[in-house]
């Protein structure tokens, strides 16, 4: 089992395994615990080693190859826990489509001398330019119904992919 001396090394291994769709390497960076959690965009909360790895198996089985450009937003470390919040700008390899932006939270724990991921949660980011920021509670004569009809988000993926 590899040893990740820093949370950054574990994060690099996580995204390398993701880009290469390498389930074995992905399994090495995750803690071997029933207390781990993974939430893919638009997906269910996967808890425990078996569910989390089954989720990655499903993601990788689609054959889609992704490239990540990461921007660190916030990084906190406290003795044996590190919390990283970052933007994932994700491109589909071989496609001309623009990158999709996600916001992710990755939590790492120092376990037996190695940093291991214990939580990954990634969510779609709204396109701020296409959101209607008018007051939804403003009194007018129109039937507002759902006050945000089109938030400008890309269509939900049919498969769980980042």
From TrEMBL:
Residues 13-126 form the SnoaL-like domain. It holds the Pfam family SnoaL_3. Residues 130-149 have a biased composition (Acidic residues). Transmembrane segments: none annotated. InterPro entries: NTF2-like_dom_sf (IPR032710), SnoaL-like (IPR037401). SUPFAM superfamilies: NTF2-like. Residues 130-162 are annotated as: Disordered. PANTHER family: NUCLEAR TRANSPORT FACTOR 2 (NTF2) FAMILY PROTEIN. This is SnoaL-like domain-containing protein. It comes from Beggiatoa alba B18LD. The lineage of its organism: Bacteria, Pseudomonadati, Pseudomonadota, Gammaproteobacteria, Thiotrichales.
């Amino acid at each position: 089992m590899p040893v990740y001396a820093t949370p950054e090394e574990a994060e690099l291994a996580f995204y390398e395994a993701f880009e290469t769709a390498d389930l074995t390497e992905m399994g090495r960076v995750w803690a071997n615990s029933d207390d781990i959690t993974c939430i893919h965009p638009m997906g269910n909360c996967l808890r425990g080693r078996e569910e989390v790895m089954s989720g990655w198996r499903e993601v990788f089985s689609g054959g889609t190859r992704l490239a990540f450009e990461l921007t660190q937003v916030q990084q906190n470390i406290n003795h044996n826990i590190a919390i990283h919040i970052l933007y994932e700008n994700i491109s589909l390899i071989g496609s001309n489509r623009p990158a999709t932006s996600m916001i992710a939270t990755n939590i790492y724990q120092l376990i037996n001398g190695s940093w291991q991921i214990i939580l990954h949660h990634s969510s779609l980011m709204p396109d701020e330019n296409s959101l209607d920021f008018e007051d939804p509670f403003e009194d007018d004569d129109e039937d507002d119904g759902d006050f945000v009809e089109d938030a400008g988000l890309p269509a939900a993926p049919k498969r769980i992919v980042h």
